[in-house]
Amino acid sequence: MSTAASAPDPRADEPFIADIELDRDSSEPLYQQIAKPLEDLILSGTLASGRLIEDEVSMAQRLHVSRPTARRALQDLVARGLLTRRRGAGTRVTPSHVRRTLSLTSLNDDLLKAGFKPRTEVVSYEVRLADEEEADLLHCETGDEIVRIERVRMIEDRPLAFMTNLLPAQGAPTLTQLSRSGLYACLEERGIHPVSATQSVGARTADAQDAEHLRIPAASALLTMQRTAYDANEHVIEYGSHIYNAALYSFQFNLTGD
């Protein structure tokens, strides 16, 4: 999907019941006749991200088909990434492609503003002594104490980004803080304010480790971003190296003429 994220749909928790007419004399399987109209509504943007879909029991009864037929129709859309099934939350339209403008903001805050409900998994949190490469990235001395953090940013339980950050130990948020807030919000709580940054954006394909982190096939397209953020005194407050699932995410550049 390539539609931009929009505000949450106030009807998101009201099950959507599609107007589906089945041709029982057709050679097309019934499950495909059920899935196709739903696919068209999702791809056209008629069904908003996060919208709850009628459950398979109700669908089977209403359309007079077997429950396995209704289940297969929904599962077909799940397998293609158009629907997401989660215990306790039902079957919902998968979050639409995230378009993010390039600015000095955190991914977590941008997703919240776009109407998503992001969740963060902290994969690792390590206090260590900076090696030569890390010291160069943080403009500190080799052997200075730093914190290295690896996190996965999720939307609707789908991994969107795998993020690696390096920070000077004295300003680094705690593991508990990072589990509930974005990195920049944590830094702000500690009185650390990013005022400028250098950033580069690129693209590559996923290796086996990337594929595992983002739950995507190896060789899938990735967007990459490296950022060094500075405070008002031009001290480095964090270095980030992030990868994004390109099927769900893109950067947006705003350009002006002379």
Tell me what you see in this structure.
- Helices cover 27% and strands 32% of the residues.
- With 258 residues, it is α+β, with helices and mostly antiparallel strands.
- The protein folds into two domains: 1-95, Winged helix-like DNA-binding domain superfamily/Winged helix DNA-binding domain (Arc Repressor Mutant, subunit A, Orthogonal Bundle), CATH 1.10.10; 98-252, Chorismate lyase (3-Layer(aba) Sandwich), CATH 3.40.1410.
- The strands form three sheets. The chain has a six-stranded antiparallel sheet. A three-stranded antiparallel sheet has the order 1-3-2. A two-stranded parallel sheet has the order 4-11.
Helix content: 25-40%
Mean pLDDT: 86
CATH topology title of the largest domain: Chorismate lyase
- Going by CATH, the architecture of the largest domain would be 3-Layer(aba) Sandwich
Biggest sheet overview = 6 strands, antiparallel
What is the count of helical runs? 8
Distance between the termini: 34 Å
InterPro entries: Bact_HTH_transcr_reg (IPR050679), Chorismate_lyase_/UTRA_dom_sf (IPR028978), Tscrpt_reg_HTH_GntR (IPR000524), UTRA (IPR011663), WH-like_DNA-bd_sf (IPR036388), WH_DNA-bd_sf (IPR036390)
Keywords: DNA-binding, Transcription, Transcription regulation
Protein name: HTH-type transcriptional repressor YvoA
Organism: Acidipropionibacterium virtanenii
